[in-house]
Amino acid sequence: MKKIITHVNPDLDAICSVWLIKRFLPGWEEADIGFVMADEKQIDKENEDLLYVDVGLGKLDHHQTSEYLSAARLCWEYIKEMKKDESINSLESQAIERIVKVVTEIDNAHDLNWPEAKNDRFQFYFHNLIDGWRELSLSDMEVVEEGFKMLEAILLNFKNEIRAEEELAKATFFETKWGKGVGLETGNKHFLIFAENRGYQVVFIKNPKNGSVRIHARPDSQVDLTEVYHQVKKLDPQSDWFLHASKKLLLNQASVAQMRPTKLTLSAIMEVLKR
To answer: What sign does the dihedral 30-31-35-39 (CA atoms) show?
Structure first.
């Protein structure tokens, strides 16, 4: 039986390394996981069914070098080498590269150089939650399992963000009285934040599957969607719309309530926003 061994009290680098091996290295999906003290030297180097990650001073440990590395980086490079005869999904590969980059920054304490590193929002970040899990007396295995769930969610978010980058080239651009706007038929909600972060004052998407619409405006903009709300209700009274108190979110879709999607087309929504 294959087994992956990492150190006790696993940190983000250790958790990510084990996740990468189980998730992407062929034949290791069902591997057991074991934990050893960090000062234990690697054994059974010839055992092909045993991998030490972030511990043991072997090929997937970085503690014997002063190079800017992480075990996650070593594991990902190892996986790519072992899968060289197989194609790696481009979208997934790009997303993994982003995950490994951040994990490496954190493992080398470069996160202390992030802008506003003292801000409370960083306490919501994955690597800080690990300390909380330990304080809650979760076992090493429970910490790893919770970490796996987090990494799967992060992977999905990164893939959607990469899709948003590609989708921007296919979007329709227009001008509003508040500034630049962009609209797109997509079910990818990440496109909204992605486009806002690129400076678009108004962004909207229409889900091609159910026809629902989400309209976002940058929070630092002068946009007020009140009149847009009245116009779309007038044009399509059979649809349901929610105008947020900020007047910068106009939703025809919600995860907390059933709403009738609009019959208005992408072009029709755009014309309202242009006024």
So the answer is: negative
Task: Note the pTM of the prediction, 2 decimals.
Answer: 0.88
- How far apart CA 108 and CA 164 sit, in angstroms, is 30
7's CB contacts (< 8 A; 6+ apart) are: 14, 35, 36, 37, 38, 54, 55
Tokens of 188: 């990818």
**Rg for the chain (alpha carbons), in Å?**
24
CB 6 within 8 A of CB 54: yes
CB-side neighbour CA atoms (13 Å) of 119: 10
> What average pLDDT does the chain have?
92
Tens digit of each residue's pLDDT (9 = 90 or more) over 123-151: 888 899 999 999 999 999 999 999 999 99
**Token representation of residue 140:** 């090493």
Whether the per-residue pLDDT at 20 is higher than 90: the answer is yes
How far is CA 85 from each of CA 79, 80, 115, rounded to the nearest angstrom? 11, 9, 41
Tokens describing residue 85: 């005869």
Beta bridge partners of 180: 175
Interatomic CA distance for residues 198 and 203, integer angstroms: 11
Residues 83/43, Cβ–Cβ less than 8 Å:
no
Cα 104 to the center of its chain, rounded Å: 16
Domains of the chain: residue spans and CATH: 3-163 (no CATH), 170-274 (3.10.310.20)
Task: Report how far residue 47's alpha carbon sits from residue 2's, in angstroms, rounded to the nearest whole number.
Answer: 9
